[in-house]
Design goal:
- By secondary structure, this protein is mostly helical.
- Among the domains are: 1-105; 578-669, no CATH class.
- The chain is built from 31 helices and no strands.
- Helix 11 packs antiparallel against helix 15 and helix 15 runs parallel beside helix 28 (580-602).
- It is globular.
- It starts with a helix and ends with a helix.
Amino acid sequence: MSSQTEETSLPLEQPKIVVRAITVIGIALSLFQLYTAGLQPLGLFFQRPIHLGFILVLCFLIYPAFGRHRERGVTGWIIDGVLIVMSIAAGAWVPMNIDTIANQIFPRTIDIVMGVATIIVVLEAARRAVGLGMTLIGVFFLIYAFAGNRGELPFLSDWMPGILNHRGYSLDRVASQMTLGAEGIFGIPLGVAATFVFIFVLFGAFLEVTGAGKFFIDLAYAAAGKQRGGPAKAAVIASAGMGSISGSAIANVVTTGAFTIPLMKRLGYRPAQAGGIEAAASTGGQIMPPLMGAGAFLMSEFTRMPYIDIVLVSIFPAVLYFGTVYLLVHIAAVKQGMTGLTAEDLPNTRQILAEGWHFLLPLVALVALLVAGYSPMRVGFYAILSIIAAASARALWMFAASGPTTAGFIELCKRGFVLTLEALDLGARNAVAVSVACAVAGIIVGIVGLTGLGLKFSAMMIAFSGGNLVLALILVLLASLVLGMGLPVTAAYIVLIILVGPALTEEFGIPLLIAHLVVFWYSQDSNVTPPVALAGFAGAAIAGSKPMETSVQAWKYAKGLYLIPLFMVFNEEIILGGPLPMVLWSGAIAILGLVAFAAVLEAFLWRPMAVWMRVLLVPGVIALFWPELWVEIAGFALVAVLLGMNWLQARRERDLPGGPPWAQSISNG
């Protein structure tokens, strides 16, 4: 609760010189990233440390030593000054000494000192930008590396179960593992953050400052506003659109929720319900192609599969998720007798498209370049150029239509320059948390590789599940929920896939890509699952509702997050492809199963559903997940018959005088 209060209250304004320094450094970082993305790529031991140095300096400037709600003071400036100097050194050390480091057999004392300093500043940056939980988990893994008979903390070896015991490692070995190779802080997680993720975060910042966010929200309202529960459905559609920009559940809640939640409340949704719907819809932004947060890029690196392939196979599951949320929203609206907004309260579709159609061009260019086979980093670079070109062309056209003057042209150029700098600054700020999280994730991944913890954890998972795949997936779900309480989604996915990935693929035979998708989907659940539901808390702050009640509603509407990965495991065709009849069949039973599940959950589909019908639907839904075809067919028949009966009953009642009895009771209530 305290963290939520801290996030929702306004931080103290920093001195102007600090604000300017943050802006200058942020713009410099964004320009550096653009240069390496589009003009001159750098090697990993240049790109990653320099990126980290910039990010750490920004972090200690943006987040003061004692929090953003207290004055920094002399003591704070001394602490932060030392950390900023250490951050610059951490970013510069490896690039400046790369030849010496590469050619030496044993690390020098100064290399160890710099390694320890880098670990310290990364952990402290994580505490400030991500939260104490991330830092504590990083520290826990470091202590685990030292806890062995030959390590720095040999006495701790007696406290560890036999399967978790290892030889232990010295400070020299751990420090060099963390900072002098590509398996620690400068490993794959930071590498992805320093290349693909940053450039797409910057792309999102350019879309944001040019007004794309408002365009997508208005377009969603125009498309769904007149329907029952229109604002809630618009929230689902807008969150899908915004997900292709921000890839962050909390950012989606704050941006789209500021518009959708008040309208949902006005239409009749309870405050907690409105906040929960927005949180569930916004969580889908993390699984919505093309960005998927940082997930698609990380999966591409871990699985060695092309980024575009991961994006393409993720489209159908994402549609299933948003479709489930949309259906639950529709059922809630019908049950409560809601209507849509009037035409006067809605934006005009033609006018929206006339004013903002150019925002679609960068997204079209992005997809076209990916399909053409360009690298994601180069695609992001060209996508940014395309949004600049589209926004500039639109501004020039409007300028020409309004009667051009020299003074007006100069003012237009100034405005464009200011917006460009604003986007460069915003992109760098938005990347701080994810880059710091990936740096700490690198520590965790490095320790797992050094100690062999991944294989040990997999062995424990197999032992606890008794070789049962369903129990194993439940264990993954529980582990993701626990990790999600202290880690952001991206970091939770990295840690979990390192720990349980080998067991899922090697022992349970789940294909590599599906194992990664399942873990990534389950890593989202901390956004919407009590007691720690960050997107739910953000929705509660806007809705003015109780955080826990809102989180329960978010958990309810986000049920597709738990079921769809099961379809991926037991019906591989929807991800990996196969014979067309099997692909169509798997897609059909996935859709039917989610519709039936929503009906069971809400006791309603076309009309209220009898208890006996809901009871019979449960084994039917379970049968749709069964790996044997004849069981799936039986489940399909049972579910189809029951839902068909519900539809026929609703159709007969529609012709009764005064309408259906259940609708009359709603209106009377």
